[in-house]
Amino acid sequence: MHGLAVTTVEGIGSTKKRLHPVQERIAKAHGSQCGFCTPGIVMSMYTLLRNMPKPSMKDLEVAFQGNLCRCTGYRPIIEGYKTFTEDWELMQQNGQMTNGNGCPMGEECCKKKKQKDPEEVLFETSEFTPMDPSQEPIFPPELKESNALDLQTLYFKNENVIWFRPTHIKDLLELKHSHPDAKIIVGNTEVGVEVKFKHFFYPTLINPTSIPEMVDFEVTSEGVTLGASLTLQQMEINLRQLIRHEVKHKTRIFQAIVEMLHWFAGKQIRSVAAIGGNIMTGSPISDLNPIFMAAKIGLNLQSKSSKRTVKMDEHFFTGYRRNIVDPTEILVSINIPFTKPSQFFYAYKQARRRDDDIAIVNSAINVSFDDNQLIENIDLAFGGMAPTTVLALKTSKHLRGLPWNEETLEKAYGFLMEDLPLPPSAPGGMIQYRRALPLSFFFRSYLRITQDLYGAVVDRRDLSALQGFHYTVPKSSQYFQVVPETQQKTDTVGRPIPHLSAYKQAAGEAIYCDDIPYFENELYLAFVYSTKAHANVLSIDPSEALAMTGVAGFISAKDLKYNQVGPVMHDEEIFISKTVTSQGQFIGAIVAEDQTTAQRAARKVKVEYKELDPIIVTIEDAIKHKSFFSGVDRKVANGDVDEALRNAPHIIEGDCRIGYQEHFYLETQCTVAVPKKEDDEFEIYCSTQNPSEVTTEVARILGVHQNRIVTKVKRLGGGFGGKESRAAMIAVPAAVAASIYNRPVRIMLDRDEDMMISGGRHPFLFKYKVGFDDDGRLLGCDMDIYNNAGYSRDLSIAVMERALLHFENSYKIPNARAVGYVCKTNLPSNTAFRGFGGPQAMFVAETILREVAEYLMKDVVEVGRLNLYAENDVTPSRQTLTNCTLSRCWDECIQSSDYARRKRIIDEYNKENRWKKRGISVVPTKFGIAFTLPFLNQGGALVLIYRDGSVLISHGGTEMGQGLHTKMIQVASKALGIPISMIHIVETATDKVPNTSPTAASASSDLNGMAILDACNTINERLKVIKSNNPNGTWEEWINAAYFERISLSATGFYKTPGLGYSWETNSGNAFNYYTCGVSITEVEVDCLTGDHQVLRTDIVMDLGDSLNPAIDVGQIEGGFMQGYGLFVMEEMMYSPTGTIFTRGPGAYKIPGFGDIPSEFNVSLLKGASNPRAVYSSKAVGEPPLFLACSALFAIREAVKSARIDAGLEGPFKLDAPATAAKIRMGCQDQITAKLDVPKPGSFVPWNVTA
């Protein structure tokens, strides 16, 4: 940081003084939910504005490539921040609609037909503070006016590492000569990862960014010479400038580079990462190295005693991350040549996610033609096909001298397959897909170069193959019931007020668990994890760790009197005593003075194992070994299934599956356990959705009463179910360590740790037999349902129960039977996740519906509408549907989305295009609201009123971004008739409201809202006499009078949901209080050559009753949809056959980013559909919208079906979830995929398996 000025989110504005417009707009636009990601997003926007006061929407897209959010669905962030752009100002001038609804279509907006109320906006841009550049923090003049600090030679040293920053090439070469193993670092993007996550150690580091020769950009007669320390961002800026000024044919390599750089990491990484680092680290999936190798760039190397220039060709890399550069040599610069008029250059990349993702396969092609338009030279380079970037030498050799035609294309396919053999067990998996991609890339480049050479392609239907997908400016609209003008201004129920913590979150002032200041004498805890999936522990030796300075001790099973935990059954050990049944289980824990010491020491604990068989990873493994949790048989049966299937005119049988999903909450699991000075008291600060369970388990393990353990939760940086039961697994060891050492103990998991141990959404496998009539009406269904629980029960039985109660989704099946099997495997224990088994089960219903429609050759929308539930229909669990709005949601969504017209346009588009296909699908949801265990359906509250009239509320729910505290304050505001500014919630704490249910099941607003209403009504009843004596008094006067009249100004509230009590034995009673319904229609476009896709438009109509807060509810719908989009089409956990998790961080596991939201995203709350069974006629919203993202998968399926028809393939095909690019591409079978031989099952051990 020497010579640099750092501005943080706290430095640009605050809630105490003045928020910066960037902070204010994200808050007012409802773009901050849990808030953990908000400071990073704020600073990305702030940085953009400091560098570009009037950015375009394209600039906005690039700025956010490196940011992730798990809550919002991104739309409100973009809506708030687009008001800074030039595009927005132009739309304003043109009179186009740019309010909180965000639709830039103006009078052409499809929703204008609904005669939109002018107040139906989520935020008013007129309330935004104008951006005033003159008010920005002043950049230190001494840094701006002088580069003296940049020119200083620096040298830093601690007990482990020496760091140099030389300023002359001579000094650098001398250092490298003296320290040949020294790491040259610029952005630290590679070394930082190696040190933190791979635990590499580099004692000597050299930073060359102050050496002129290594940061120069020079244009020569042959091309350009770039210093190896030039950042990727600087390279892009310089190359773009050169492209603008040079003739087009000379800059084709440069154009390929800048196009690739758009997809290379995020802007934050490109701003610090260097060209030379990209080359020298030698990643086999580097995005630039294929370009450099195909271009045969020159590498200028220099040592103390010599200089040389080498070509970056097939000889440069000698093995995985190894090359020909001598340890004493430095890569000083690179030479990139101009291209010639007859030379063409293209580069391609395919990843799991377009923005900020590493490649699965990438390629570059460099072709030169002679005067007869024969191939003079051709170089093809590929990444992701070998341990290094490779050149297809045989292909190049055999194509020279050939004409550029289809015969040559066919020859190239054969030679490429020879050049790029990929064994079926190769690391990375996706073998057939990766084998197909080089051929697909070559075909795309063949068409593009054909167009370059001849001005046209042979078949116009092939034009769609020329380009991949590009950014489009997002559009959106939001519709909801506006409160009547007669509603009191202090009554905020139904109003779209911002999340009450949004301003604090945007200012970086919001406190999360690990933000709690360190306590005196605090220790840090680090776990020792099992490295085997199934083994006996023979010995544990912590001696080397205990000898380290700063280590306080080691705890393991022998230190605990009680070692069993679990949310339902205590079938997990805190610390393994004998047998590990999954990688990532706790062998023990180190406590030390700080995090770094604790984690280093934990890695030094030696554990010896004796491995055991079998290792059960997949559901199929569990079925084979009959590995099920016993005593948990669950079945739903209604009607005469066997008779219905015997008499059904048509029968189909099949299976489908849906994979694991990681919660990826932005704040990982965290606990601070603080022992008090007396009476065995503890305060536990924990990022948990279930503080009462933390208190219960800590008290039980420590052997004290629960009244001594107070668990406190200020807010969570996301939860999604992942902190319902698994938080206790972190909190209990921390409390045990704090008890043993009588010192505060803190732990916050690193991302890779969290992903390895905490479990996630259950994978499911469904096997079904369905009967139906000629019209497609469902008559009977028999189904076996399997879920992968992992090594313990956790909440897997309850997850299976909800799956059994949702497997029909929104369709009436009069005769249905479903049996659930909970599989015990050697994987981390899976747990609650938004939807809790419901989305997985509803997926099978949609799969069945499409198979029925295709069997009968009918329109799936027609079949879906035919089978849709109606009022007073009965579910397989025999619950009668009342106030059922499914048909209203369906019909309104069909109409408002203009479905019929768009479907005709899509059909025409698919006829005209061979390599891009579009699809559209309609998917409903019907999600039951209540815990399936009746006793959990209770809520408590404590309302305290102080003499100044201010109100303090405590209730049993935790705030994790869903706006629960905001809604609860709105409820109290309406009940008491006072402004929300007078009401406050400090935290959720077990010493205020005991025995709380977890904040889960989408029921927290219902339960806690009714409890708060109960407490407020109690107080209102007490105040009646005061108000009657002074009817014109103010709230403050009434409260003051009540105090002097000795009227209690505090009250507890309680609520239990009536009418619940489903019996699994008799299949009777109501499992749910009511259902939240909705419908989604999604249109996508698929790239048949790569499997990539783009969501063009999504329309959602959702029945949320009378919304407590439309802004929060719309945000929950959009956020839930995008999380579901990840589940159904993007997020994929990869396991080895021996139980190792390969995807343990954001580098390998991809959640949706800013660029993945629908290009048009319209959300409408159904009007005139109040709900008598919840607080103020509202409905629950947290989980129900997630499944609607399944519409994206089935739209993809429609597109794939069109591609298969073009290839002459008709009939049923499977597309399981997630529908990743690999599955999409291999589903779009064609002449390329037909060339790939399929390895015989059983002839190899796959690198990865599907759990």
From TrEMBL:
InterPro entries: 2Fe-2S-bd, 2Fe-2S-bd_dom_sf, Ald_Oxase/Xan_DH_a/b, Ald_Oxase/Xan_DH_a/b_sf, Ald_Oxase/xanthine_DH-like, AldOxase/xan_DH_MoCoBD1, AldOxase/xan_DH_MoCoBD2, AldOxase/xan_DH_Mopterin-bd_sf. The lineage of its organism: Eukaryota, Metazoa, Ecdysozoa, Arthropoda, Hexapoda. Transmembrane segments: none annotated. SUPFAM superfamilies: CO dehydrogenase flavoprotein C-terminal domain-like (SSF55447), CO dehydrogenase ISP C-domain like (SSF47741), CO dehydrogenase molybdoprotein N-domain-like (SSF54665), FAD-binding/transporter-associated domain-like (SSF56176), Molybdenum cofactor-binding domain (SSF56003). Pfam families: Ald_Xan_dh_C, CO_deh_flav_C, FAD_binding_5, Fer2_2, MoCoBD_1, MoCoBD_2. Residues 156-341 form the FAD-binding PCMH-type domain. Its cofactor is FAD; [2Fe-2S] cluster; Mo-molybdopterin. The keyword Flavoprotein applies. This is Xanthine dehydrogenase isoform X3. Homodimer. Belongs to the xanthine dehydrogenase family. Coiled coil: none annotated. The keyword Endoplasmic reticulum does not apply. It is found in: Peroxisome. Keywords: 2Fe-2S, FAD, Flavoprotein, Iron, Iron-sulfur, Metal-binding, Molybdenum, Oxidoreductase, Peroxisome.
